[in-house]
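[job 0412] stage=fold_complex status=start
inputs:
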Amino acid sequence: MSTSQAIYAGWMEIPTSAVNEDARRRAEDAAIAALVDQYAAALYRVAYSVLRNPSDAEDAVQEAFLRVLRHRHSLAEVRDHRVWLIRIVWNVTLDRKRRAKTRPETDDVAELARVLPAKGLSQEELAAAAEHHARVLACVERLPAKEREVLLLSAFEELTSVEIASVLGITESSVRSRLFRARNLMAELLDYERNEHERSLR
Amino acid sequence: MNSNPHKPMSSAPNSDFGEETLRLIASLPAPQGLEDRVHKALGAAPRMGKVVAWPTGIRSRFSLESNWMRTAAAAAIVFVVVGGGWGVLNRVEQGQNGKVIVMPARIPASGGFSGAGAIRTPETIPGPTVKQPAKKAAAPKKNRIAQPAASHAAPQPVAQ
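[job 0412] stage=fold_complex status=done
writing structure:
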């Protein structure tokens, strides 16, 4: 019992239910803190893969955990916290992306070259790799929303197709068929882009 | 590479779908101090109000769980409902003697229109009186064929 509680206990009786409530709240706070330590980085990467803006991704992670705090009473009912949290941050991220549709993302080559790891590459190779990454991201943006979502989530090593299905609220077979379509579309788009690029160089 | 059979991307590692780029993005490290900032944000978030219990003395004597307190509360509710109903009924009874508005007897202007039995008709100002048009003498009918001049007229036979 804290000092303030001990002081007030003489005048005001704290009922058993209130003590339980306080203990429960503390346990929930501790559980949320543990979730932050364990999954904040993973959630950031999920948010960044969609928003591609560090501060926006961090804001999305904070908003996701604030939502968790609001629904902390249902924390005990969650079976897989990781998938549950990814689902929350995914929804937050999509909301943010929808709201900030007019704002340009950091798709420029220089920003990508700075962000993406490129060890042992010469300056020319680095520039070419950054240009390729930018082209890929532009093609990803041109995909239909359903295929794009599955493709983005499938890039995460730690997510299985079952978990992707759980995050998106669809069946596993839908995940597979969407991923198949997304790959075909991406291959076509990248092929077209490559041909256009080569034609422009001639 | 992920050897998980449920991992969707593991089936085609070398094909160019731009997955390498997406994987690079997906494997980016989180910024330093992210967890601390999230902890701070959660600490600053407003919490729901805490339920404060009644003081011990008041709670033991005036607890809502006790029977007489419940009876008193029920009696108070009945009193309010009955009292309110009686008040409304009393006002309605008083209001039955409504004010009678006596309409002043209106003397119709001479020569005006009649009220045609209407309860209330707007006052009209006496308008201009229309003069009786003078009776004009009936205009002689014009003959279609012009009468010849007297000098050129054929001599009328004299009645004998």
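[job 0412] summary: Chain A touches chain B through 55 residues (CB under 8 Å).
[job 0412] exit 0
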